[in-house]
Amino acid sequence: MKIRFLRVGVASCGIAAGADKVFEKLKEKAGDIPVIGVGCLGHCYAEPVVEAVTDSGESILYRDVKGTDEAVDNILALGENNHFVIPEKRKAHELVKVLALAGKVDPTNMDDYIANGGYEGLKKALSLSPEEVVNQVKISGLRGRGGGGFPTGTKWSFLAAKQAEEKILICNADEGDPGAFMDRSLMESVPHQLLEGMLIAAYAMGATKLFIYCRAEYPMAIKHLKIAIEQIYKAQLNVVNGRKLEIIIKEGAGAFVCGEETALIASLEGKRGTPRFRPPFPTDSGYKGYPTMINNVETFGNVPVILREGGEAFAKVGTENSKGTKLFALAGDLKNPGLVEVPMGTTLNEIVFEIGGADRDSVKAVQTGGPSGGCIPVELFDTPVDYDSLKALGAIMGSGGLIVIGKDRCMVETARYFLDFTHRESCGKCTFCRVGTMRMFETLERIVAGKGKESDLDLLEDLGKKIKAGALCGLGQTAPNPVLATLRYYRNEYIDHVKNNRCTARQCNAFVKLAVDKDKCIKCKMCIRTCPVNAIDENFNIDPAACTRCNSCLDVCPKTPFSGRI
Amino acid sequence: MDEQYSFLKQIDPESSNLIKGLQQIQAVEGYVSDDAIRAAAEYFNIPEVEVEGVLSFYAQFKRVKPGKYQICVCDGTACHIKGAPLVHEWLKQELGLDPGETDADGIFSVETVACLGCCSLAPVMSVNGKVYAKLDRKNLKKILKEYAEK
Lengths: 566, 150
Hints:
The complex is a heterodimer.
Chain A: E1 3-9, H1 12-16, H2 19-29, E2 35-38, E3 50-54, E4 59-62, H3 69-76, H4 88-93, H5 110-115, H6 120-126, H7 130-140, H8 152-160, E5 168-173, H9 182-189, H10 191-205, E6 209-214, H11 219-235, E7 239-240, E8 243-244, E9 246-251, H12 261-268, E10 292-296, H13 297-309, H14 311-314, E11 325-332, E12 338-343, H15 348-355, E13 363-368, E14 374-377, H16 387-392, E15 401-406, H17 411-425, H18 431-448, H19 455-470, H20 474-478, H21 481-489, H22 491-498, H23 526-530, H24 552-556
Parallel strand pairs in A: 1-2, 5-6, 5-10, 6-9, 11-15
Antiparallel strand pairs in A: 1-3, 3-4, 7-8, 11-12, 13-14, 13-15
Helix pairs in contact in A: 2-3, 6-10, 6-13, 7-8, 7-10, 9-10, 9-11, 10-13, 17-18, 18-19, 19-21
Chain B: H1 18-29, H2 34-44, H3 48-57, E1 69-74, H4 77-81, H5 84-95, E2 101-102, E3 108-113, E4 125-127, E5 130-132, H6 137-149
Helix pairs in contact in B: 1-2, 2-3, 5-6
C-alpha cells in the first residue's frame, strides 16, 4: 500500500495543539507525497489529526500526532501507532452535509473545492429564476442558524421584493458566544462554501453589495476568506445578474451585542454598535438606509446544499418545524469535545453521551445558546434538539454551542459567570439591561461569596422578568435566561447557598475549606514551600483565614496530581 | 495630519471606515493614543469625541501602551470552567500583573479576552497571537520563561 497524499488539519484549533509543527515535519520528510493542509475534521479531542489516503482510496487516520521524526515516520510507513478510529456511536448519529468538505479540501485552493462539487449549487441557482431560488429555500424549511430561527426563505423574500438602487447582503460572522466555534471552523475549513451561499443569495435577492462582518479574533478565517474572494474575482464568479459584486470583509472590534442585526449594521457604518428600535426592519432600511438582509455563516453554508439537493430533499431531514442538520460545538466536561453535525431532532442524550463520550454519572446539565441560553438538566436529555423544544424548556437553540456541565460545578457560579459576561457586554442603551444585569450580577456575586439572603432569589426572578420585558434587543431579552433557568431547575443549590451556608457542588470558595489528608500525606512539604500566602504550618494545618484557595498545594502534591480545580 | 499617521491614507476616508482606521492604528502602534484620536478625527472628518466614543465601546481597542508580549487569557465558558481564573492567579503570582496591566519594563501585559475559539483545548491563552493550549501551572511557567529570555 502506498500513500497517495496526506492531509493535516491545520485550522486554529489544530495549530493550538501543535499541527503546524507536524505539517512542516511531514512536508520535510514526505518526499514526493503531497502534504495538504486542510481545515477542521471536528475531532478536536484528537488534534493534531493526520489523514493518510492510500492509492486504493483507503483513508487511515492518526490522532495526537507529534511533530517528531518518530511520529512522522510512523505515519509515512502507515504504522500502527496513534491510529485513530472514529467511534461507531458517533458515526451512527452524524449526518455530515454542511461540513462535508471540512477537513477534506485545501481551504486556499478553489480548484479543490470545485473538484469536490463546489459551486454546483451556484450553477444550479443560475439556471433557475431568482424567484424559484427563493422558493427552493422556502421549501427547504431552513431557519436562521444564528439562534433566532427565523425562516430564511421568508426573510429572503422580503429583500427580494424591494426595489432599490443598492441592496445589501450581510453575513454575520461575529460569533461572539463563548463556547461556540462552528462558524470559525466552517470559514477556516471551507471558505468557498460560505461565499457560494452568499452569491446564490445575492442572485436570488438581487443584492448589489456583500459584506462579511467577522470577528477580528479569527485571523485565519479572515485570511482564508480573503484568499477565496481573490480567487472568485479572478474566476469572475462574482458576476451575478450582469453586475460585478464586491465582497467586503469588515473586522469586528469585540462587542458581543454586534451579533444583533441593527447593532451590527451600526458597527458596519463605523459607529458604536448599539441596537435600535425596529421597525423599520433592516430589510426596509438597513446599512446606510438601503434595504439589507443579514444571515449567519452557517445559514449561508446550508444554501449550496439546498440548491444541490433541492429544497424538498433537504426538508426530508429533521423535525416538523426544524429542517436539515445543525452544527454543534461540544465543550466542557466531556471526553470528546469538538464539532459535530447531526440532523435536527437528535436528542441531547445522543449528542452528549454517545457522540461526546461524556460520563453518564458525572454530568449535571448542558448549557445551550451560551450566555443567552439556559441550562437543561440531565433528566431532560431525551429532548430532541430543535428550535421549539429547547425554547419550551427555557433554553434556546442559540448558534449551537453546547457546554456540558459536570456534577462538581456549582450552578449559581455558572449563572454568575454568564451574567458577568452579559452585564459587561450590555451596550448601555436600555436602562433595564444596563442597570438590571449589573444588579443581577452583584446579587449573584453576593450569593457566591456567602453573603446572600433568601429574598435575593425573588429579587433575581423579578429583575430577570423585567429585564426581558424592558430590553430592546436580543442581548437584554435573553441575558437573564441563565439565571432564570438555573433558578427553575436548581433552586435547591441557591437555597443551599443562602440558607444552609454550603455550596452543593463544593465549588464556591467561600464555602470550601482545604485540609491535608494526614493519612495519605508523605510529608514532602512541597505544599508548605509552594503556598504563596504561607497558610500551611509545620504540622500541615491550613489556616482558613489566610488560605486564598488558589489550589497551588493540590497542584504540587505528588499524592493528588493536579487536575484543574474547578 | 501628522506624518506618523500617514498610513491612514491607504484607507478610504469614508466615515464607515473609522473602525478599520482605528484597527490599523492599533496594529501599527499597539494602542490608540490621544494623538492618534486627533489624527483619526481629522482624517475621517468625525468629531474627536465621537472617535473616543467608538473607541471606548469596543473591547478590542486599548488606550494604554501594551507590553512587548501581550498575554491574552481566554475566559470563554469552556476555559472558565476549566480554570481560567486560576491562570490569572498564576500570572499574578509569576508576573504580579492583573488583567489590563503592563509591567514596569514594558515586557509583559495581561488581559482577558472573551473567547479564542479553541474551547476544546481549554484552558488556553495567547501570547502575541500564538495560542497555548491545555495550560497548567508548570507549562505556563515554562512559556513565560521562554519569553522572558527572548
